[in-house]
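Supplementary Note 2. Why include the ligand at all?

Several targets in our set were suspected to adopt different conformations when bound, so apo predictions alone were not considered sufficient. For every target with a known small-molecule partner we therefore ran a joint prediction. The input for 6-O-phosphono-alpha-D-glucopyranose is given below.
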Amino acid sequence: MEDKKFTVCIVGGGSRYTPGILKMLVAEQDRFPLSKVVLYDNEYDRQAKVGEYGRLLMNEYYPGCEVIDTTDPEVAFTDIDFAFMQIRAGRMKMRRSDEHIALKHGCIGQETCGAGGFAYGMRSIPAVCDIIKDIRKYSPEAWVLNYSNPAAIVAEATKRVFPGDKRVINICDMPVGIMNQYADALGVPRNSIEPRYFGLNHYGWFTAVLDKETGEDYLPRLREIFSEDLPEEAFSELDASWSATFHFMRKMVRECSDGMLPNTYLQYYLYNQHMLAEENPDYTRADEVMNGHEKMIFEMIDEVIANGKFEGTKYAFTLESLKDDDHATYIVDLAYALAHNTHDVFLCMTENDGIIPNFSEGAMVEVPCIAGTNGLEPLNVGEIPAFQKGLLENQFAYEKLTADAALEGSYRKALDALTLNRLVNDTDKARALLDDYIAANKEYWPELK
Ligand code: G6P
Ligand code: MN
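The joint prediction is reproduced in token form.
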């Protein structure tokens, strides 16, 4: 096993995140050797550029690792060991539509939360499930590491459509991103700490942050550190919305009940009015991404391709200089743990079968799991307090109804889901939103009756 070279398929190969993932695979070549990376996407032109960029990258920094790009599922999925799956059904254009429609109705316009997350979920469920069916046709044993959003809703659907398939794993990088900040604040290496956490995806709380060697719980210290406001210029290297998120996290920590540490996404649910007031209905996060990160990545790709190699461009690097990319490292860490049976702990989505005894059985909860060759073994969480339980049950019912609506094609359940969503919370508003979203999503949603 140690000597095996793996084949990885990046599903959503044309994504702005793919160059970062490829670079991370380069960085990990000794620990996680690959013979081939396959890029799969349904949009040829965009992915072909990323593929060309990937070949130039491997040529210079990872000799022996082949890169192919394809839009043919049989070519993409035959004989692969891993699928890293991060698709965006409808692309940024539809993210923009989701966010703008929500704001038009006076609701938060966000990728995964609230009405926008619902619209995206209705697109993602059929798209993700169809691709996993294809993967299973050609590589029944491959590990499918899925981080397509909205991950909570997608996980609820994959659980039902692929029952008992322990090699489909749903995971998110946000807790890892937050843990990186904890590690930096503590001045310890990222992989020396381990979380205890519970919730649904983008809706959870850290209950402990443990030193892997000594068992010391750093959470009380982190609560103190993260209660302090930072100078305004902190996070100025980030986009405005992420900078605001990490500043706001400090207020959430101060006000968080029960001595826990909140996931940043709780800002949308717990400070709904504040977040709504912060949003610009004419310029949402989708606009910011399209004019910022996405543009920058594709400019980089064009420049490297035009130059025919990295050397001689500002994007040339040395292997030692490769820094962590949250969107990439954790997924390689997980793949490594699954392949090499390391039993490291990851926060993943898994079915609640008594992990949280006072929470709905069968819900896809995000909790610490031991990862190894047999898949995930969740750690016990125990009973959760009334405040979190109330919030989570409401959110789970919304997510479950959204999956029902997509899988059954039910207008009624879609309406119930939106009405239940804490960021909508009104039947008239829910109906108006739903009808606008149906009109905007004709190409993507199942028909609702
Ligand atoms: C975090 C979340 C992802 C989400 C991303 C959005 O990484 O965990 O689920 O997709 O943020 O970032 P963006 O930069 O696209 O707003
Ligand atoms: Mn996420």
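The pocket of 6-O-phosphono-alpha-D-glucopyranose (ligand 1) is lined by residues 111, 149, 172-174, 285, 289 (CB under 6 Å). The CA atoms of residues 351 and 364 lie 5 Å apart. Comparable summaries for the other entries are listed in the accompanying table.
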